[in-house]
Amino acid sequence: MEAATLIIVLVIALALFFDFTNGFHDTANAMATPIATGALKPKTAVLLAAILNLVGAFLSTEVAQTISGGMINEEDISATIFPEIIFAGLIGAITWNMLTWLLGLPSSSSHALFGGLIGATLVGVGASAINFSVVVSKVILPAVIAPLTAGIIAYAATKLAYVITRRYDSKPDGRDGFRVGQIFTSSLVALAHGTNDAQKTMGIITLLLITSGLQSASNPEPQTWVIVACAVTIALGTYMGGWRIIRTLGKGLTEVKPAQGFAAESSTAATILASSALGFALSTTQVASGSVIGSGLGRRGSQVRWRTVGRIMIGWILTLPAAGAVGALAALLVVVLPVWGVVIDAIIAVVIILGLFMRSRRDEVNAGNAMSEVADSGKAVKVKRNPPPTRRQRAIAREEARARAARESAEKKAAKAAERSGRGPKDGGAA
After folding, report:
1. What is the DSSP string of 262-277?
2. Quick check: 282 and 146 in contact, CB under 8 A?
3. Under a CB-based contact definition with an 8 Å cutoff, are residues 61 and 199 in contact?
4. CA pseudo-torsion sign 394, 303, 37, 271
5. Which residues pair with 339 in a beta bridge?
6. What does DSSP assign to residue 58?
7. What is the reported pTM?
8. DSSP 8-state symbol, 338
9. Could you give the C-alpha distances from 81 to 8, 87, 120, in angstroms and in order?
10. What's the number of CA atoms in the CB half-sphere (13 Å) around residue 413?
11. How far is CA 89 from CA 93, 124, 128, 221, 339, in A?
12. Which of 34, 69, 200, 283 could form a disulfide with 182 if both were Cys (CB 3.0 to 4.6 A apart)?
């Protein structure tokens, strides 16, 4: 096998491994809430998410075409160097994914991928090879707008849910019916995840095939075998569960009531599906976190912990440049050592991945012990233990107070009447 062909095969394998890490890294976005509220058992939840990720991957290719035919100006890059650049970018993305997985941080796999590719391209080729207008319009702006939009929708949906079911205000478990609804909404989030995140790996492989002359640049749509391979890989990754990140999200989300979880998941799914149709490469993690915060604010007596929100946003901001820095270092080795650089990068990547995996075995997380920590997203909104009464509750309290006052008044009158009858006539009964 020629060296060029071997590199292409190696890049495709690495891209599919990234797809696998994306699956287990982002499972929590769809399934942490129903697991935490008891709507679904952990293993049932991840199996359902895996199946729907697989189905979702076949529903749209708009995001894949954004990556394969828009973000990188492949015509400005030599076919002899571009596979190595993609390889370096994937190393940056996978390294960040594995590190945040070990730490249980729900970071953005999407931005890790974009950061790794941009960093590698800047070092390997130059800024001219990056279409910054597409990066800004279809990556950066959606990253800012989508969580905000999802949060507003979740806020409104939560308010509406509590208004519709306000007759259950005095019943602690009066809204448990929303748990059934969560099965549907969490499934929709998993389906939406497949329509967006699986497309990114499809786009990377298609971009590789185009620059290598194995696919026409006039047709940036992924080939069938690429779609099938990426769909199956992300589904397998999803079935692995990503229990560390579910642990991080899940316990924090136990403070989110079923009505809020239903609203948050509906908002997340709607935002991602709309963005997939428009070709926007979103971070499902950011959208899900925005929805959780919005649903928390929609509940009475809540307030935002801005310091916690700030920490979440710092993590979002660091993802793209951190993955970009690793991708740039990997690309530097490829540029300095054209052939051996790929070998050295591959060895270093294997060592890092195995090292992080072995480190994770010291503190294994599985379906049985996943719910043991508190998520930042769950702590971003503080809800009072005794929230102020609703308008309906105040009206009920006023009616009860009036009834109680009337009852007490009647009792007093009855007591006075009984007292008078017990004394008898004032003249002692004389004629």
Report:
1. HHHHHHHHHHHHHHHH
2. yes
3. yes
4. positive
5. none
6. T
7. 0.71
8. T
9. 11, 10, 11
10. 6
11. 6, 10, 17, 21, 16
12. 34
